[in-house]
Amino acid sequence: MSTLLRNPSARIAIGLVAPLAILLWWQAQSQAGGTRALAFAPLGSVADAFAELAASGQLFDDALASLSRAVTGLIIGGIAGVALGVAMATSRLLDRLVGPLYHAIRQVPLLGWLPLIGLWLGNGDSAKLLIVSLAAFYPTVLNSYEGVAHVERRYLEVGRIYGFTTAQRFRLILLPAALPLILTGITQALAFAWIATIGTEILLGSGSGLGSTMGLAQAQQRMDIILVAILVTALLGFTLNHLFARLRGHLLRWQGASA
Questions:
Q1: Domain range holding 197?
Q2: Residue 173 domain-assigned (yes or no)
Q3: pTM for the full model?
Q4: Could you tell me if residue 68 is inside a domain?
Q5: Considering its fold, how many domains does the chain have in total?
Q6: Out of 50, 74, 138, 225, which could bridge 217 as a Cys pair, Cβ 3.0 to 4.6 Å?
Q7: CATH code of 216's domain
Q8: Residue 169 belongs to some domain of the structure
Q9: Residue-wise pLDDT tens digits, 103-128
Q10: Three-state secondary structure call for residue 183
Q11: Is the dihedral of CA 112, 77, 254, 172 positive or negative?
């Protein structure tokens, strides 16, 4: 079995077993008649819906809108989260002032903020972007704080011996040592931002995006369009995570060299 798994073609074939089984089961359910025919759209109808949305340009526009919203929220929330996490880890006063508030606020589920944010900002792009930014903010604060706070003291002692300034200690010691956890926080933030993007688009409804298309298709009982939007959402989410994993591996390539 281990020899088989080392073969790339075999790994791909094994990985396709579960998706193909699900597709066969789905097609069988769609032909069972009754209410199942409505709940399980035939695969041919899903393919037709994909062609329809792609030809009209709606699918591309929705995917681009969701991607733009997720990436923008990730950048805003990620930068703010890393900055606050590092600042709290390096300043005991700031940690005592801001830490309790941060830990209290992050206990509120993101969707629990929607009624309040809806009153403040309505249900437009600003409200969606704020929720996505918060989704990216929480994990980056936590992981950045943990990364910097748990840097081994001996590394800092080496910096003092060499007479490093505060900026040099941060750039040459704290940041490289904390980078693995910081990048872990950004990886989590990417997943949360993508989930929050689709979720807010479904719940708030207005504007373009894959989530908005899902919500509209549900109201129209277009299961084929819902499935197309779900599949594109999954594909884009997988691609984003894969690309960031490659970037993370490149930034941390020194870990393998030092092992």
A1: 49-254
A2: yes
A3: 0.86
A4: yes
A5: 1
A6: 225
A7: 1.10.3720.10
A8: yes
A9: 899 888 888 888 888 888 888 889 99
A10: helix
A11: negative
